[in-house]
Design a protein that fits this description.
single chain, alpha/beta, Rossmann fold, 2 domains, 9 helices, 41% helix, globular
Length: 213
């Protein structure tokens, strides 16, 4: 359905060329006015959450976009870290423009040491804080930080305080399922990935290189 202040869409079969042009011109004028009222160059808090696959993948797309514009980017991975992630190798050609830290030791069913897992998460957060405070970084990705929050390895208050101290044009992306409500309310952009089908559950097909890792 068209927005109330935009000209209504008409069927291509009944709209003349002149009518189409006039409608599009009206739409353009409205959109131009809206864009003139927007704010640019403000750092966003972006959350990717939900049970579906693709949260980190979508965030890495933003990383690649920022690198392509010549910006510096930092990635801090929580929980993950027991293996050398393929994305880290893929980003190596960017050199010092990208800083990548995998600060965990693997998922909890692998580590089986909650005290150490919490210490690793807190150490990872200290790394993240350095990048969040550095105006030289355009984008900071906190991968799987929502999992660390869910497991109480990090507190919501310390994460909210950390992202609030970043420079005004620095973007931060926080991924992982079960994002806390306080973070969702603070965020400027929230995307929830819904799980419709998964090959592991339906066909017992395990994670594969290039798809899941």
């Amino acid at each position: 359905m068209a927005e109330p202040d935009l000209p209504p869409e008409e069927s291509e079969g009944t709209e003349s060329g002149d009518a189409y042009m006039q409608r599009i011109q009206r739409r353009k004028a409205i959109q131009d006015r809206r864009m003139a009222e927007t704010v640019t160059d403000r750092g966003l808090v972006i959350v990717h959450t939900g049970a579906g696959k693709g949260k980190t993948t979508a965030a890495l797309g933003m990383v690649l976009r920022s690198l392509g514009h010549g910006y510096r980017v930092a990635i801090v991975q929580f929980i993950k870290g027991a293996w050398e992630p393929a994305e880290k190798r893929a980003f190596e050609p960017w050199g010092s423009q990208l800083q990548f830290h995998a600060t965990g030791e693997g998922f909890t069913w692998e580590t089986q040491d909650k005290v150490r897992d919490k210490l690793m998460a807190q150490a990872g957060w200290e790394v993240a804080l350095r990048y969040l405070a550095d105006p030289g970084f355009h984008l900071v990705l906190l991968d799987e930080v929502n999992i660390a929050l869910k497991k109480d390895y990090l507190s919501v208050d310390q994460v909210l305080a950390g992202i609030s101290r970043r420079p005004p044009t620095t973007h931060v992306v926080l991924t992982g399922r079960n994002a806390p409500q306080e973070l969702i309310e603070r965020a400027d952009l929230v995307t929830e990935m819904s799980l419709i089908k998964h090959p592991l559950k339906l066909q017992r097909i395990r994670a594969q290189a290039g798809i899941e890792f």
